[in-house]
Structure formats: C-alpha cells, structure tokens
Amino acid sequence: MQAHEIAMAAPTVRMDDPVSKAVQLMAVNRLPGLVVVDEADRPAAVLPGTQVLRMAIPESYQDDSALVHTVDEVHADLFWHGPGKLSVRDCLPDPVAKPATVAPEATLLEIATKMAKKRSPLVAVVDRDGKLTGAVTLERLLISLAVAGPSD
C-alpha cells in the first residue's frame, strides 16, 4: 500500500488561527492532530492534540502532579477554558519543527518510519510542489498495517 491509498482529506489550520478552531476540527473529525499550512497550502507544522493539552494545563500542575489532586472536580473541568485566546502558533514550539511529510508513493514502512522519527500522530502527504494532498493518521496507518500483515 502507498500513502495516497490510505491518506484522508484532512482539515487544516494556519498559524494565526485560534487554537479553539483547531480543537474543534480535531474533535469533529476525530483526529489526533492537524496539519498547519502556510499561505501556499504547504505543510508548515503538525499540531498534535497533546501539545494543545500541554498549553491548556497550568505549568504549576505540570511541574507538580500532586497539585492536581487538590482541585475539586467542578474546577478541574474548567482548565480547558484557559487556551481560549491562544493561536495555533502559540501552541507550537519555537522554533517550529519541520512537519513529517511523505510523497504519495511512500510505502507503509516509509510512513511508519517518518511518524516514529518525528513522534507525530500524523504525516502530511505532499505532491512534487510540496502542497498538501492529504494526511495519514496513526489510526489509519495501524489499520492498514493490520490488513496488510499476515493472517493468523
């Protein structure tokens, strides 16, 4: 199998989009992250959902996990309102890491290697001009590997 056979038409965001838009797209489309594109629709970054969570959780709780047990359930559910004013750019590391990309002809092994090396929940599939044509999520890759693998 090749990347173009398992890639999905993935929604994208731009650096200046609100992170709330990114979260909504991830939730509605059940995605582990999003491809961030530039003005020419070329992948500029991958925004993992886990990175958005890191930005939403106050640093004091990340530094001392015992503090999380001191917050009651009602208030603990409100932490999510914190990133409301953040942009996608705010949730990415500085400098922004080059996104994981593959050609449409990439094999499952190439996709898996790129995903593992970049520790990315998805890989952007790009054409010869570097424009986004789709994305392969970890879930789609694992399903494809299971289907392509030897049967028991």
Helix run count: 7
CATH architecture: Roll
Distance between the termini: 20 Å
* Class computed from helices, strands and strand pairing: alpha/beta
CATH class: Alpha Beta
Q: Could you tell me the radius of gyration in angstroms?
A: 17 Å
Q: Output the helix-strand order.
A: HEHEEHHHEHEEH
Question: How would you sum up the global shape?
Answer: globular
Estimate the strand proportion.
Answer: 15-25%
- Widest sheet, order of strands: 1-2-3
Number of strands: 6
The description of the largest β-sheet is: 3 strands, mixed
Question: In CATH, what is the homologous superfamily?
Answer: CBS-domain
Average of per-residue pLDDT values: 86
CATH T-level topology? CBS-domain
Give start-end ranges of low-pLDDT stretches. none
Domain count: 1
Helix content: 25-40%
Domain CBS: 1-65, 93-152
Pfam families: CBS
Keywords: CBS domain
Protein name: Putative signal transduction protein with Cystathionine beta-synthase domains [Nocardia brasiliensis ATCC]
